[in-house]
Records
---
Amino acid sequence: MSKVKDLVSKVENQELVNLQELVKAINQVQLQIGWLEAQKPDLLHQLVGIKQKLNEFQEELEKKYGNVSIDIQSGEIKENESPEKN
């Protein structure tokens, strides 16, 4: 080692602060990722339930209006084109 490196036993205060902040930031992000992973199964379960409700509601709408498309922005109903027979 060089003589300068032998004389220095600690990093400068600002370097230590920067190092600590970066490590703290990494730890915080890892904690958030862990929290999200813990929430993921619950959210996936909720998504499945919502999709089931959507399918049931679509069946109700089809019974009421027939085979149509509904614009989810305006509510406008359009008849689906039937496939042409050859």
---
Amino acid sequence: MKALGWLPVIAGAAFLVHRFAPEMGKACEHVFDKMPDEFPPKWMYLNITAIREQNERIIQLLEEQAKARG
């Protein structure tokens, strides 16, 4: 019976997340963009993005080499 009492709370929370998630994502992105580049979470994100781009370039070069070999 106790779990049944929590059901409306959980359903309400799920509804609110579903309803406001897109707006909150945009707001968080706007705040994140305003942070200085030395801010540790932004620094980590920028480094991860750079590593991902570098990995994509390496994979592309390896695929081109594989096609050139036959």
---
Amino acid sequence: MSTIDRTSRSGREPITDVDSVEAAEGAIQAGGPGCYHVDEISAEPLPSRHTSRRWGTEIKRPDGVVTLDPDPWPDR
């Protein structure tokens, strides 16, 4: 199944589409500290029968360290 991950911050630009969560981590290095939302988007329906779902969050600390916090989906 082909999916992309979309990284965004509430009320802020840019929204970034990448091929993997790891690439999303690299994409937010240019952004400021804060909480970033990561959504998984698929051309085919996911187990929920929707084509998108929240993957989780990425938190970038002021020192530049990024922490991934995935949501607990049953198929992970």
---
Amino acid sequence: MTTINVGDKKISIGDLVWIPANTPLMHYLPKEEHEFFGRSTDKKEPVYGLVISHNEYSYRVLVGKEEFYVQKKQVYGVEE
């Protein structure tokens, strides 16, 4: 399991993260569908997301049955 150090907190792949209401979520799409990559959505209510992977600036999270990218600085409790 990969651990992401965030200040004094540790977030691991498989952890749930709190995503505040109206946070922009970028749709995750397979490589063959890049023409729609810029689409984003805002959840009107706060949600939990399951961390699937991460890069320097964002998490890939599972919210319900959909996968999204969310900026790390938008996730509750994460400070960059």
